[in-house]
Amino acid sequence: MELVYAALLLHSAEKPVDEAGVKKIVEAAGIKADDAQIKALVGSLKDVKIEDAIKNAAVAAAPAAAPAGGAEEKPAEEKKEEESAEEQEKKAEEAAGGLSNLFG
Fold first, then answer.
1. Containing domain of residue 96, as a range?
2. Contact, 95 vs 62, CB < 8 A?
3. How many domains does the chain have?
C-alpha cells in the first residue's frame, strides 16, 4: 500500500512516477523498498491516467462503517469470505442509485 501512496504523492506533486522517485519516498518513510514490487507498480501505472483512475475509484468506493468502540476486529481472512467482490459491487451500485434519487 505504501508504494501506491508514494506514486500518488509523486503524481500530486506533478513529478514523474518512476522507480527512483517511488523508492526515495518509501525509504524516506523508513520502509524497506522492494525493487521488484516498485518495478511492477511503475510498470502497471505506465499507461494509466491517474486522475481518471482517482475519479472512477472515488465514485465506486463506498465507505465502510467503523467498528464500535469495544468491538473485536475479525481476522482479514474471515472478512474476505464474508464480503465477496460481487457483494461489494452490488453495495456500491445501490449506494450510487440512492444518491442519484436525491438529485432526481
1. 74-104
2. yes
3. 2
